[in-house]
Amino acid sequence: MGTENPGRQQFPARPAATPFAAPPQNVMPFSSSGPLVRSESSGFRSTLPAGHQPMMPPSMHMDGSQVSGFRSPPIARFNDPSVPSPPTSSVPATVGPFQRFPTPPFRSTAQVPLSHAPPVGQPLAQPPAPSVSFRTQPQIPLVPMGSPPQSLNSAPPNMNVPYSSPDSTVPAPRPNFQSSFPGHIRLQSNADSQAPPIQSPFSAHQGGYAPAPLPSSSPFLAHPGGYVPPPPVLAPMGLQSRDQMQHFGSGPPIGSIQGLMEDFSSLSIGSVPGSIDPGIDPKALPRPLEGDVEPKLLAEMYPMNCDPRYLRLTTSAIPNSQSLAARWHLPLGAIVCPLAEAPDGDEVPVVNFASTGIIRCRRCRTYVNPFITFTDSGRKWRCSICSLLNDVPGEYFSHLDATGRRLDLDQRPELTKGSVEFVAPTEYMMRPPMPPVYFFLIDVSISAVRSGMIEVVAQTIRSCLDKLPGFPRTQIGFATFDSAIHFYNMKSSLTQPQMMVVSDLDDIFVPLPDDLLVNLSESRNVVETFLDSLPSMFQDNMNVESAFGPALKAAFMVMSQLGGKLLIFQNTLPSLGVGRLKLRVDDLRVYGTDKEHMLRLPEDPFYKQMAAELTKNQISLNAYAFSEKYTDIASLGALAKYTGGQVYYYPSFQSATHGEKLRHELSRDLTRETAWEAVMRIRCGKGVRFTSYHGNFMLRSTDLMALPAVDCDKAYAAQLSLEDTLLTTQTVYFQVALLYTASCGERRIRVHTAAAPVVADLGEMYRQADSGAIVSLLSRLAIEKTLSHKLEDARNSLQLRIVKALKEYRNLYAVQHRLGGRMIYPESLKFLPLYGLAICRSKPLRGGYADAPLDECCSAGYTMMSLPVKKLLKLLYPRLVRLDEYLLKASTQADIKDLEKTLPLAAENLDARGLYLYDDGFRFILWFGRALSPDVAMNLLGADFAAELSKVNLYEHDNEMSRKLMRIIKNFRDSDHSYYQLCHLVRQGEQPRESFLLLSYLLEDQMGGANGYVNWFLQIHRQVQQNA
Amino acid sequence: MELLLWALSFFIDLALMASTFYQLVILTDLEADYINIYDTASRINRIVIPEFIVQGVLCAVFLITWHWFMFLMTVPLACYHVMLFLKRQHLFDVTEAFRFLSAEKKFRMIKLGFYLAVFAIITFRLALSVFNFLSDAEDAVHLF
């Protein structure tokens, strides 16, 4: 039935079954008959629910033990099946019907079809009412599947294992569970995977309490009627012999323990044999050595969801009430990266409705998406978010087939794909779509000239002129400043640019307002001449002042008509005119006091006001800063933060060393696909609401993000909150809509839609958690906290949050299982403690003055606020690989895979004989061990091998090893184009560079006041256990 | 004299209440998306400083006229205003408007309540002094 019909899936089976629950007399006869034929009835009870909704009994059981488990200890843990009431009461109402289902009158009918049931759909032939529950009935067999003798045999050993494991501190049994766990998850995660052969022995003796379906129970519930393909086997139903049933009745204890054990991972702490440390085996700690793993569960449940690269929820199971959400102490929300780069072949399809107009819900303005359903033979559609019935416009009408699918479904990407792009008609334009505009504001004071920045910038811009998006409409303009502001008239009729100097900083005016921003294709020659001569124009400039504020105002005036992208290149602290800043870091006494956070905020309100004005006029600002001295990135960065821009910081820029990085990143900034004058809104179903947004943008109204420019390297985070009422739907839909002007001049709307199940069970929320999204959101919250509190407070509150979450999780399981000395955490969140540590040790949150210059902390803070999940995780837990073995091996490309063996970030993994590469996505560090064979160093560094490595640049030498190394580095760089990783070389024992460059970033080691991984883990464990 | 003072403070307090109420209405409108955030900020920020000054004047008037009780009642708010001004947090921040929206609303709500309380006292004193004035006048008539 509903299997192949996406639309139908939304009509849940459960509500349909509710009528059953209504007649109470159904229950009565049954329970009265119970005592009479106890064995039979109990067996029947335990299996029948399993039959009709195989996931039910476990979930009922789970609910019993999880929800009411600690509140009412005497809960029927392995409840005698004939005592239905306690669990039922704690189960969501909908479960009830199924449990009460076995009524005598029905029983006979139930069993008949069961035993003869053909694979699919057949139950429809039965009395109409039960039909719905019958849909799932085919799954029954998974319980009795295993042949009776087998099950009997397998029971005893299984019984023993789980019993011994929870308490014994011997870690031996644990690996079993852990190793079996992924397998189970995978199997169960497909809601459709029926009784995999492996499970059958298990389930056979455990009956209704089969542990196997347990994890999948809720997804299934939440997704009624979804993917329930015919089960592989049916016939054995007939085997439901009475004694087997009895066996079910007696077997459950194992089942539930087993089932629960599989829900979490645990780590023994306390008495691990052979460990020196205070009882923890460092090797056993979880580490994300494979990088970020996107949760697959949701995508499998809702295959039409948009790809997780666009939208990731912190947990794919949305809680159904505020109280449940409050018990999930982690942030509840989403990370959105609306323009994420799609791999070739998976681009977002563009849909043009032309005359029809874009189809949206009348009431909630949701765009048409794969989750809407068509009714009334195709004349109406029901909005997935607010469930309002809308009319289908005549041009969009299509007949439905027997299953309710539109006949033209294959030609409608908007009805089959979670991500689409609509071409927006004129109603979506406030003004004609703007052309791409680039305006460059370049510092030409003495320090900028000396560093060689101007030259690199001019060359890079010139080389990118051909690749700027939006040809032939692209507009470009330049201004330079020191103590005065220089404008350049680049009218196409000129052969040479004309320079105009404005030195009155108090009353800025723009000379020739029309010719400062020119069409690139018309004025190409003038622009090129200008860029060629720019470096030489100022090479003798001795001016040390910087009139940044006035220059910014002037640039704003030039651009205010059109909007666009403003790139500022700043090499000194702004010292003249409005917005001048002072050296704030001088006063060391501020650190550690309540005023410390002021250092991380813009000093002059001018910067925030200016940022607001820029955003209002659709100008996005990207700040490039180069100084070795304090330039107050906190203030400059605010301009980028509120305009949807980005901060690039190159401390102590020298064109010889950093030139390549600047060249790459600037050209990436100029040439990547950019969405202009954009606004973004996230809509979601009734009962949930996005309440706070985190990232680099400005909110224009409560839920509308103003993004003057967006590109693929920007991600935005939002937090959800629930409204007072209980969520009654089974699914919540989210829709991200980004309305923007493409570089080609077309107005477009990019829409990403996703669905997530609603659950009533905390364990399920943890199981479906996405640690990547959680970490991303947590880091943003922590960074925001540093702007109003001390760093220490920000770190502590982050730690507290993790502890609370793990404690809550522990409470779910620890009590029944007496897991005393173990650290318990959900499999999905096994890296959470480590990433928490990484956030605490990341630059924006790390100690004070001594640890990192303020400017670096601030720029890292601004950067991390906009990083997409994967890049952030890589920055937090960088990759460390050993290279020397690979370099020495005389082989080629094929075994580049060897390099994927990432090492834990601890100094003990650095072998003095090795050569290691550390890669955090922003820089490479090549670490030469002390005992590394001199040949390798000589081959790689040429004649410089003995020199001080801080002065050595890595380039390709004429030998195989060097070529190989460069190939690896290129390979690594190609995996992420958004930043250029400059290669720093460091030799073991070369202090203080080694600790400054690498050792302080090995976050598993203790460093100064900061915790190492083991200590951190123990600390968290201790706190979790306190009054647990 | 007394009558004049209370009449003056009556109108000042009325003005303060009106301004606070106006700001509150604007913030509510912003929340409901009836008004643009830039307009909100410019409208509110335009009257913030005048309001602070008027409130300070009211406080000072009470001090000068030696009304201890009224002075002590209004001085904490005046101090708070000064503190906000010194910390440069008195203006409505456009860039972070929605983050602080509820706090700003709460602050103005409390302020409104405070002004109302002051208003009640002032009205009472005003009525009292009017009564006194009138009865004095009558007494004076009687003297003749």
Key traits:
heterodimer; A: 1028 residues; alpha+beta; 8-stranded mixed beta sheet; 29 strands; globular; B: 144 residues; mainly alpha; 0% strand; elongated
How would you classify the helix and strand content of chain B by structural class? mainly alpha
Q: Which range does the strand content of chain A fall in?
A: 15-25%
Strand percentage of chain B, roughly? under 5%
Major protein interface: A-B, 15 and 16 residues
The portion of residues assigned to helices of chain B is over 70%
Q: Major beta sheet of chain B, specifics?
A: none
Number of strands of chain B: 0
Number of strands of chain A: 29
**How many helices of chain A?**
34
Rg from Cα of chain B: 19 Å
What number of domains of chain B?
A: 1
Radius of gyration of chain A: 32 Å
Contiguous runs where pLDDT drops below 50 for at least 5 residues of chain B: none
| Multimeric organization | heterodimer
Q: Stretches of chain A where pLDDT falls below 50 for ≥5 residues?
A: 1-261, 271-277
Domain Zinc finger Sec23/Sec24-type (chain A): 358-396
Main location (chain A): cytoplasm
GO molecular function (chain A): SNARE binding; zinc ion binding
Domain Sec23/Sec24 trunk (chain A): 433-669
